[in-house]
Write a structure and sequence with these properties.
This protein is an alpha/beta fold and 255 residues long. The chain folds into 2 domains: 179 residues, ATPase, nucleotide binding domain (Nucleotidyltransferase, domain 5, 2-Layer Sandwich), CATH 3.30.420; 73 residues, ATPase, substrate binding domain, subdomain 4 (Actin, Chain A, domain 4). The chain has 9 helices and 11 strands. The strands form 3 sheets. Strands 5-4-3-9-10 form a 5-stranded mixed β-sheet, with helices on both faces. Strands 1-2-11 form a 3-stranded mixed β-sheet. A hairpin with a 2-residue loop joins strand 4 and strand 5. The structure holds adenosine-5'-triphosphate (ATP) and magnesium ion. Magnesium ion binds next to loops.
């Protein structure tokens, strides 16, 4: 990343101030490794920020107010659920089920159900074109043509899949995320629960773009659910805002 920025020369490396986001479930050893690599890359002043906090800032939540807000970041590898208040993470839950598992589920489903082998890229495309979290959608996408190799004959073939099938294929993984959300809500102190009841849940991360996922989480929790404006970039945007407010935000971890 830093080489890509192409600043300074080989002899005069500018002193850089960095904010790097880390998953909230990171271990001390991993944290140390992030700090070391940042320093080796020329970071003179390095700060770390927890991803759910960065996501919340990126979404536009006032993280310092004395109000509880729940943010869920469904990325590729992990889903992180956090309750934030007064500039801190009050409780959080992180599980290793997210967008990439959805993709794997689709690959597996196509093999089992349709006897067709597809690659990861095709599975990802299916997820984006006809992926769904609910078997009934208000604006359903059209069936999608999938090409792959027939498991029996070895010959290329094409079949059509509907979003209903994909909703079925993803059901188990989504249930795991739902369980994690419920357990995070259970851990939440009652005063903050009352706030979340009013403001609802914020979703960020690429995985949150799955059709109907917001509605499904809303049905499960009976809470309003809002998807971030640009969910794929919420964490990066929040980290950028943190960099501009280094002196103001007390929750940045000084490396
Ligand atoms: N339109 C879409 N519908 C469903 N999933 C999508 C869509 N666009 C992207 N994704 C998925 O979002 C995931 C990537 O999201 P994101 O960039 O937030 O993850 P990440 O931050 O790289 O991962 P992590 O937070 O786990 O380290 C991928 O699994 C990708 O397939
Ligand atoms: Mg992420």
């Amino acid at each position: 990343m830093i080489k890509m920025m192409n600043i300074g020369s080989r002899f005069f490396s500018p002193s850089m101030r960095m904010v790097i986001c880390i998953p909230s479930g990171i271990t001390e050893v991993e944290k140390r490794a992030v700090q070391d690599s940042a320093e080796h890359a020329g970071g003179k002043e390095v700060y770390l920020i927890h991803e759910p906090m960065a996501a919340a800032i990126g979404i536009g939540v006032d993280v310092e107010e004395p109000m509880g807000n729940m943010v869920i970041d469904i990325g590729g590898g992990t889903s992180e659920i956090a309750v934030i208040a007064l500039g801190g993470i009050v409780c959080d839950k992180s599980i290793r089920v997210a967008g990439d598992d959805f993709t794997n589920d689709i690959e597996e489903y196509m093999r089992r159900q349709h006897n067709i082998l597809i690659g990861e890229r095709t599975a990802e495309q299916i997820k984006i074109e006809v992926g769904a979290a609910l078997p009934e959608l208000e604006n359903p996408p059209e069936d999608f043509a999938v090409r792959g190799r027939d498991l029996m004959t070895g010959i290329p073939k094409e079949i059509y899949v509907s979003y209903k099938e994909i909703a079925h294929a993803l059901d188990k993984s989504i249930s795991k995320i739902e369980e994690a959300i419920l357990s995070a809500l259970e851990m939440t102190p009652p005063e903050l629960s009352a706030d979340i009841y009013k403001t609802g849940i914020y979703l960020a991360g690429g995985g949150s773009m799955l059709r109907g996922l917001d509605k499904r989480i809303s049905q499960k929790t009976k809470l309003p659910v809002h998807i971030a404006e640009d969910p794929l970039r919420a964490v990066a945007r929040g980290t950028g805002i943190a960099l501009k407010n280094i002196d103001k935000f007390q929750f940045l971890i000084k490396a």
